[in-house]
From TrEMBL:
Keywords: Signal. This is Lipoprotein. Residues 1-26 form the signal peptide. It comes from Lysobacter daejeonensis GH1-9.
Amino acid sequence: MTSAWRVSVRLACVVALAGCASGVVSEPAQSPPLDAPADMAPDFVAVIHSPDWKVSIAGKRVMLLGPQGTRELALESNDVLFDGRNVVATDALGRVEVRVTPRLCQDATSGAWLPYTARVTVDRGQPALGCARDP
């Protein structure tokens, strides 16, 4: 090893240690923002294609319009989650669960951009994906 190389390495170590000894404290990492605002509206309309379902949540009223007609369901819960809302409603025929997150979604039929994505599960069947918007 050459003398100049040793001096360069020692100088680099001294500079690095001097930064540690200076008492400089780095800023703590900021936590990421939540995906969903805590005040996300409890009322919305979810539109699903294939199968064609439309779920409207307005207060305590939940309406499901689907291939078998219209069902009015009793609202069991409408909970704010860390990344959106989860709504559960029931009637004599079964249960509907709607999960909505505030992520842009392009409607498959109209091509319009809606502010929310939605996942709807009807009577514990396969979840179907679609979009949601304010009522």
